Amino acid sequence: xxxxxxxxxxxxxxxxxxxxxxxxxxxxxxxxxxxxxxxxxxxxxxxxxxxxxxxxxxxxxxxxxxxxxxxxxxxxxxxxxxxxxxxxxxxxxxxxxxxxxxxxxxxxxxxxxxxxxxxxxxxxxxxxxxxxxxxxxxxxxxxxxxxxxxxxxxxxxxxxxxxxxxxxxxxxxxxxxxxxxxxxxxxxxxxxxxxxxxxxxxxxxxxxxxxxxx
Length: 214
What we know:
Elements: E1 24-32, E2 38-46, E3 60-65, H1 75-78, E4 82-90, E5 96-102, E6 107-108, E7 120-127, E8 132-139, E9 144-150, H2 159-194, H3 197-201
Antiparallel strand pairs: 1-2, 3-4, 4-7, 5-8, 6-7, 8-9
């Protein structure tokens, strides 16, 4: 089969499965030879229809930001700066079938074969003009899980940025405590000056010296 640039076609693959094979896994790889060699590998599961497993568990999606768009959301700057995130997807039951990202593409970082039950890490990036991404993971049993990633949420900060914010909050709290102590001290000192003699020293009059006549 020959394909011209921009042309697409479908390829049918016939797989002969021995009758004695049950609950086995194998791989199928399709290679495309051209200016660049491309391939697609999938896992083929062979199961007995009488002992078909029931899978109602959705895949899991976890992510970690590599950077953020703090101070870069202005229209004249957002298209010149990018943010990225590492995404880990896994389906330990029937296996991971596909992962789709919107609005941009998602790229596998670790080895990814459709149907794998191992953890797979993907990479996603976008300009700061688009601050959200929707990631959908689908397993072999067609269970799917969708998660929206927002680069503007709190947990996109790095450890250094979080530490700086916590330190600033603690410093502000310390200054507020000092301010309260200073106000209390000044109020007590002022009240002490305003008290009459009897409230400060009691009603007892000071002793007077007696005169002696000669």
